[in-house]
Amino acid sequence: MSQNLQIFNLDLSANSSHFPLSIYSSQSTIKMSAIGSLIFCNDCGNLLDRSVGQDKIKCNVCGCINKDTSSKTVVTHSRPNAFPSALKQKHSTGQNLAPEDIDGQAEIDTPCPKCEHPVMKFTTAQLRSADEGATVFYKCPNCGYRYNTNN
Known about the structure:
Layout: E1 6-11, E2 20-25, E3 34-35, E4 38-39, E5 56-58, E6 65-67, H1 86-92, E7 106-108, E8 120-125, E9 135-139, E10 146-150
Antiparallel strand pairs: 1-2, 3-4, 5-6, 7-8, 8-9, 9-10
């Protein structure tokens, strides 16, 4: 038994180049006018006002009389993996860092005064009053020599 799958496009915006919604149906004819509790005009696509208990709603734009389907119950089914968890995505896209990447020290191309290693690691701290410069703490990654300067 083969079915012909038809695709119907319902444009939900005033500008037809934005926000198209495709509706798939195996029926030969379908006239879609509701999505959830929102009801749209079958002729012009305008969002219709809420019903006041009548079976028909008149479109304020084109005057078309539309069937009120807002009282319909819509039941949907989805799989747990249909909506990916943002937390799982963050967890799965995490990076593995080596311990030397976590030390929080920046590097500067200044030779060590003790062993002449070409690179020093450094951190800064504001130890004096706010109107004075920060203190820079240097450490040689080769020999461990430490010193500081007041900027």
